[in-house]
Structure formats: structure tokens, C-alpha cells
Amino acid sequence: MRETTKINEELEKLILLIKKLRAPDGCPWDRKQKKEDIGKYILEEAYEVIESLETKDRSNLPEELGDLLFQIMFLAEIGEESGEFALTDVMKGIRKKMIRRHPHIFGDIKVNSAEEVKDNWQQIKKKERSQKKNGESLFSGIPRSLPALQRAQKITATAAVYGFDWPKTTDVFKKIEEELNEFHGAMESNDQNKIEEELGDLIFTLVNLSRFVKVDAETALSKTTNKFLQRFSYIDSQLTARGKNLDQTDLAEMDELWEQAKKDGI
User: Fold this and answer.
1) How many Å apart are CA 54 and CA 162, to the nearest integer?
2) Full-prediction pTM beyond 0.70?
3) What is the pLDDT of residue 135?
4) Does residue 143 belong to any structural domain of this protein?
5) Cα 181 from Cα 193, distance rounded (Å)
């Protein structure tokens, strides 16, 4: 009970702080912000949270979570000022949704694995969509602003709920081979528009493969990119130790250092 009281107290303090910033005699910059302005800040803070999660030193995670929470509550304050919604609506809405999406906890549905929970979640979402009366697309809940890999994976997962999917993983491999052959053909044609189209088809199919093997494509590529940066930084530092820079070496020496980085577990 004491912990709940502390949470309520801190939440109230943060709400009052935001209201003060937005007051007529508050901060000019905070007062001029509109709902549309906050989106980019939420995205930026969310990426900083993810970056903090991916590092071994997570001491700054509470700060990054606080930055993200502030933007969410700031946006809720703008919504309350305009009479569209309030923070209580946001909290009540997500609480009801989580209860609805977890019938194995708050209902009489039985599950035996996390995979069954995920399947139930998708089926519940499907039912919720069918109950909407505004004619929204199946994919309307997937923001266009998502990173391309993440958006592609969410779209194909939604389509799969309705049966538009390959029966098994080996079918995806066959599709990858097909798309790769078509990409080779586009390269031979030297048609830049066709090359772009076929490369997009190939990447899209690889995203489907990641879904089949239960890997998040965005996370996988991000980790590989970070690994590349670490190994290339190793190459740069080793060249410096040899009295060289990147302009004074060749591919053979860089490959040698790259392999050494792999052996060293970088």
C-alpha cells in the first residue's frame, strides 16, 4: 500500500509540473507545442530506451524511461486541454484492453504456452477489428511511421491470421530462391526501377522468414549493424596501433583484422 501511495504521489507531482509548464505564465516553448509536435519526441525517446536496453550498462534506463513517460503524459495534457481525452482515459483504455487480451488470466480460457497466448492475442484483435463500424482497413492499426522491417513483419503477421501465409518454413525458402532469381534478372536488365522493386520483394520475403523462425527482423538487423560497427571500430583502432589509418591500408589487411575481431568475440 505504501508503494502505491508513493507512485500516486509522484504521478500527481509530474502532472502538476506539466500543467505548470503549459500554464499561461509557463514555459513559452512548452506552451506552443501541439499534439503533432510530440510524435517525433516520443519516437526519439522510444529509440533511446531501446538503445539503453541493448547496452550492457543499463544505469541510464530509468532516465530514458522517464523521458518517454514525460512525453506521453505531456501529450495527454494537451489532449485534456482540448477536451479530446485525458490521462485517465488513456490509463482506463489500456487497462481494459489488457484484461480483454488476457482471457487466460481474467477469464476462463486455458493456455499451455506463450505461443498459445500470442495466437489468442491475434484472434482477439481479429474479433475487435470485425466489430468496428467505421470500415477501417485490417492494417489501419499499423502506423506508416514504423521502421520498414517492423512494419512489414506486423503487416504479414496480420495477414497470416486470416490464412494468407505459407504452410511451412520450407515454402518461404523456395520463395526466397524465386525472389533472388528475379533480382538477378533485374540486375541483368540494368533497369534501376526493376532492381529496386525486386530487391524490395526479396527483403520482404526475408522478413516473412524471420516471422516463421520467431525472430524480430528489426532487432536482428539492428544487432548485426551494431556488430559491424564494433568490428569496424576494432579495425580502425588496430590500424592506429600499427601507425596507419583507413586510407593507408587495403582490403586484405582489413579482412585480416575483421577475422581477428571475430576470434576475439567482438
Assistant:
1) 34
2) no
3) 55
4) no
5) 16
- The C-alpha atoms of residue 81 and residue 26 are separated, in whole angstroms, by 15
Cα 197 from Cα 182, distance rounded (Å): 10
12 and 53 share one domain: yes
**56 found inside a domain:** yes
Q: Which three cell numbers stand for residue 198?
A: 525486386
Residue-level length of the chain: 266
Does one domain contain both 38 and 72? yes
On whether both 115 and 174 belong to a single domain, the answer is: no
* pLDDT score recorded for residue 89: 95
Are 37 and 15 within one domain?
A: yes
- Domain identity same for 62 and 109: no
CA-nearest of 161, 103, 90, 157 to 130 is 161
Estimate the crossing angle of helix 87-101 against helix 61-81, to 10 degrees. 110
What is the distance between the alpha carbons of residues 243 and 143, in angstroms, rounded to a whole number? 49
State the residue range of the domain holding 193: 148-215
**Residues 6 or more apart in contact with residue 144 via CB below 8 angstroms:** 151
User: Does residue 51 carry a pLDDT above 90?
Assistant: no
Helix residue ranges per DSSP H, the chain = 2-22, 28-32, 35-54, 61-81, 87-101, 103-106, 114-131, 148-161, 169-189, 192-212, 217-241, 251-263
